[in-house]
Write a structure and sequence with these properties.
Elements (H helix, E strand, L loop, with lengths): L2 H5 L2 E4 L9 H16 L3 E4 L11 H14 L22 H13 L3 E4 L3 H13 L15 H9 L5 E4 L6 E5 L3 E5 L7 E4 L7 H11 L4 E5 L6 H13 L9 E5 L2 E2 L15 H7 L3 H9 L14 H7 L10 E2 L2 H14 L2 H14 L9 H15 L8 H9 L9 H7 L2 H15 L6 H15 L4 H13 L7 H8 L1 H13 L1
Parallel strand pairs: 1-2, 8-9, 10-11
Antiparallel strand pairs: 3-4, 4-7, 5-6
Helix pairs in contact: 2-11, 7-8, 10-12, 13-14, 14-15, 17-18, 17-19, 17-21, 18-20, 19-21
Bound molecules: glutamic acid (GLU) and zinc ion.
Length: 496
């Protein structure tokens, strides 16, 4: 692409606000956004909410919130506006009615009076005769008498698009040359009998009116592309637009468990679940980028700025991509490790609050403690939510501190309690309460004097102090917890 083309790039992300946003949606948004940003183009966000039975305001609100959480800034769209608004299709019905009328008057679409039963019957017949099913063009050229007859019967027509009787060929930006034969793309409905316009009309009409140059979307929509290409030509013919037909690129399927397409209903498809567990947007987006694209052969970890700089459609892989949760987690963990400690500490707060480890109003002391504790867990977390179990022991008040019963049973048995007792004695009069002093005192008392293996020496102390067998580093944890609370917990653990 030359630079002058590039300046004109306009892409759109145009979800329908139904259900909960899913991974496939975010992948589509990401590829469009990265493409726009790479070319210094325009990222249009449009809401395709023309299906009143399925769309909901709640879904719409969630969609916008998730888009903002992921960090997709849109140049035109809801709450931002722009020269081609409104960007919610439910606010554009007048436009669609006008376009439908012009297509009809221009002869590019026609009224079809067939009932669905009649069409089903004819399709069944076609199948039994070995012909391709699909609308057979019966109403393409009705006489005035036939129309009058249907009207007299009380039939209400749908508006049907007249497909050209020739193959439609285009070069997909991901999959190369693709050709559709006319018998496989029959005339299709644009407007229902009740006057309601369908996706088949409103999506390409808005792409035309919003001067979209590139349509990047999932492979599941490939079959609508020949229809849209034909409709585009008709829109130009009847003077709705003079925009060129966009280029199309179909992103690969995402496969879930057992070689099946990842479905919106699969739990790992739910985008909100990732935020709840504590994926950071940087990590999730990095992973989603790999569903059909790669920055290089030997590096999987990158920032969005790096993706934008490197993003080329030529490198999008047409083969199905496999969704791999473990890999997503590993990538998220890598991003957590690169965060600045203050930043990470700030991001942990809502997760600790949701689990009531921290109160609504975090005190200055709690904040300072969290800041000091964060480096202890930064390398150990895959998702932010794990901090709840790892750091809870530091913030809980002594009255409600409790130990994991299984861990306590196992490690605070008679032997364990003897170890904890020796630890108490060794620490009681420690002159300075810091990590090296604590470590030295415990090593001397437990490993050297008692002759214990480190695992047997520190396991019971760890459960006594943190309540769990797995915790952040022990001596640092004790320093952060403080002398008084640490000695308290060691005393408590001896009671058994
Ligand atoms: N609203 C459509 C969908 O979410 C958009 C499809 C397209 O990108 O053309 O499936
Ligand atoms: Zn018909």
């Amino acid at each position: 692409m030359t630079d002058s083309d590039a300046a004109a790039v306009r892409v759109r992300f145009c979800p329908s606000p139904t259900g909960s946003p899913h991974v496939g949606l975010a992948r589509t948004a990401l590829f469009n956004w990265a493409f726009a940003r790479h070319h210094g183009g325009t990222f249009v966000f449009r809401i395709e909410d023309t299906d009143a039975a399925r769309d909901s305001q709640e879904s719409y609100d969630t969609l916008l919130e998730v888009m903002r959480w992921l960090g997709f800034d849109w140049d035109e769209g809801p709450e931002v506006g722009g020269p081609h608004g409104p960007y919610r299709q439910s606010e554009r019905y007048d436009t669609y009615a006008d376009v439908a009328r012009r297509l009809h008057e221009g002869g590019r679409a026609y009224h079809c009076y067939c009932s669905s039963e009649e069409i089903d019957e004819r399709n069944a017949k076609a199948r039994s005769e070995g012909r391709a099913p699909g609308y057979d063009g019966q109403c393409r050229s009705l006489t005035a008498e036939q129309v009058a007859g249907y009207v007299a019967e009380g039939r209400k027509p749908v508006l049907r698009f007249r497909m050209p009787d020739e193959p439609i060929t285009f070069t997909d930006l991901v999959r190369g040359d693709i050709s559709f034969q006319p018998e496989n793309v029959p005339d299709y409905v644009l407007v229902r009998a009740n006057g309601h316009p369908l996706y088949t009309l409103v999506n390409p009409v808005d792409d035309a009116l919003m001067q979209i140059t590139h349509v990047l979307r999932g492979e599941d929509l490939l079959s609508s592309t020949p229809r849209q290409i034909a409709l585009y030509a008709a829109l130009r013919d009847v003077g709705v637009t003079d925009a060129a037909t966009p280029r199309f690129g179909h992103l690969p399927y995402v496969m879930g468990q057992g070689n099946k397409k990842l479905s919106k209903r699969d739990p790992e498809a739910n985008l909100l679940g990732y935020r709840e567990r504590g994926f950071v947007p940087e990590g999730l987006l990095n992973y989603l980028a790999l569903l059909g694209w790669a920055i290089s052969e030997d590096n999987d970890i990158f920032t969005m700025a790096e993706m934008v700089a490197a993003f080329r459609l030529e490198r999008v892989n047409p083969n199905p991509a496999r969704f791999d949760l473990k890999k997503a987690e590993a990538i998220n963990a890598a991003h957590l490790r690169t965060l600045d400690v203050d930043d990470l500490a700030t991001r942990l707060v809502p997760y600790l609050q949701a689990a009531e480890v921290l109160p609504e109003q975090v005190t200055h002391d709690q904040q300072a403690l969290l800041r000091r504790a964060t480096p202890l867990v930064q390398e150990r977390m895959t998702v932010l939510g794990e901090a709840v179990d790892m750091l809870g022991f530091l913030f809980v008040d002594e009255d409600s501190f409790s130990r994991d019963p299984a861990d306590a049973d196992k490690l605070l048995d008679e032997n364990g309690r003897a170890v904890v007792k020796a630890a108490s004695a060794a620490l009681a009069d420690l002159p300075t309460w810091d990590t090296p002093s604590i470590e030295e005192a415990l090593r001397r008392a437990l490993v050297e004097d008692m002759g214990l293996k480190p695992r047997h020496a520190f396991g019971p102390v760890r459960v006594a102090i943190t309540g769990r067998r797995v915790s952040p580093p022990l001596f640092e944890s004790m320093e952060l917890l403080g002398r008084e609370r640490s000695l308290n917990r060691l005393a408590g653990a001896q009671e058994g």
